[in-house]
Design goal:
Helices cover 39% and strands 28% of the residues. Helix 2 packs antiparallel against helix 3.
């Protein structure tokens, strides 16, 4: 997922932050040129620092959110608006079957569906389309867990 912003005057550098969806690896580009990580930054900070024209860019991963947290010269840069509470509730619906069925297989399938719902909620689709897709994944999660349990039970001779 790519996020971009422009640094304030006088330098006005166009910064693009590209975050890999599954690995979380971050690549930073300043005016189209890749920027390598630097070791200069505030002590005790948990992020990765990048020296760009006019200042220091710090990029941190955020818990359960796909949008990285970014500071430019110790000023917070908002790359995307925060998710609303209804978006978190709908994105978290697939976790219910994992709790209901109580099993490692259910938790794995539920967490994968939750991750895909987070990706959908962070997309640029209209709110109604995002909600409909997430509810569809929720229903698919129930079906996937039930089918997996039935097939597993038949394979083990329990059904």
């Amino acid at each position: 997922m790519k996020y971009s912003f422009q640094t304030p005057a006088p330098f006005k550098v166009n910064v693009v932050i590209d975050r890999a969806l599954f690995s979380g690896k971050v690549k930073v580009y300043a005016d189209g040129q890749p920027v390598s990580p630097s070791h200069r930054g505030a002590r005790g900070a948990a992020g990765t620092f990048y020296q760009i024209k006019g200042g220091v860019l710090e990029v941190r991963s955020s818990f359960l959110d796909l949008v990285p947290l970014v500071w430019y010269n110790e000023d917070w840069v908002q790359l995307a608006p925060p998710m609303k509470s209804w978006e978190w509730v709908i994105a978290g619906l697939p976790l219910l079957p994992g709790v209901f069925f109580l099993g490692l297989d259910s938790f794995i399938i539920s967490f994968i569906a939750f991750f895909f719902n987070l990706v959908i909620m962070r997309s640029r689709r209209p709110a109604g389309a995002r909600a409909a897709l997430c509810v569809g994944i929720f229903m698919g999660t129930w079906a996937a867990i039930l089918v997996f349990r039935i097939v597993l039970g038949m394979a083990l001779g329990q059904g």
